[in-house]
Design goal:
single chain, 326 residues, mainly beta, Neuraminidase, 5-stranded antiparallel sheet, 13% helix, globular
Length: 326
Amino acid sequence: MSSSKPIFFAVILTIMSCRQGQNPESVPPEHLDKGAFFGVVPSEKPQLLAPELLASPVTEYNGTFSPDGTEFYYTTDIPENAYITFTKLQTDSTWSIPKIASFSGEFSDYDPLFSPNGNRIYFSSSRPKGDNENSKIWYVERQGSTWSEPVRVILTGEENNEYYSSLTNDGRLYFNIWSKGDIYKATPTDSTYTIEILPEIINSGKDKGDPFIDPKEEYLIFRGYDDTFGRGDLYISFNINGEWSAPENLGEPINSKAHEMCPWVSQDGKLFVFASGRINQKLQTAPLDSINKVHEVYNSYDNGQLNLYYTSTNFIQKLKEKHLTD
């Protein structure tokens, strides 16, 4: 892949920053959420996550904080490529301008998720072929203030396109194969993994993907397409006495008529992050309006592309209590 693609991404950021009247290398501190986890207080209604820092006209999804909330990695997707992007908490409690991660930028990389202890980031990538039809799972290991070279996780056959890896405290890895439309569990052995497909109660129906597994393996949140509010929705299943419950749509206000995907829960269990293509302010037009009005909306974050949202995790306990009393 040519080096022009990272340059193209940098140009996008520069254009965005200049349009907002900002230096592309810095955002005024008063516009940034301060402190760990962007200083957010989880609410019952989904809110844009650090919009001054993260939201843009291009596609953002799959956000993951380090366990201490001082690093945030996510995917920035453009038609030509996908990049794993990151921002860090600085000494003045503001967050750095997002940059392409040290292990990304050449191939199409996406779906970063921190391991429960924060020492690894697992991600999906088209490397080394650059063929998204053969996406595989990789990881990088923390080495001081930087990351190791990516290491391939050998899971299934070369013909399978593996995506979205989420880990338990015991090292079990949940992922999906989009060409099959199913979610799998990989249990580590001495030198490899034992792979098993999740039960039919999870995988029945249309394609299932984007599995986030609770580190204690008490629940699973994933993307599905059965009886949705719009496009893809998020669903939850609980591990009760060793059996997975029937998946339940998370409902509104998390799901919408748009596309919801890429669920993630913070290590402390308080913050829920997901991606949504919902439009917050619909465009109002009339005959003979200037087309520039449409251009302005398209060039904002509120154009139907995926953005990162957060909310409280209170819904998880409420839904679990309902299952326990049924």
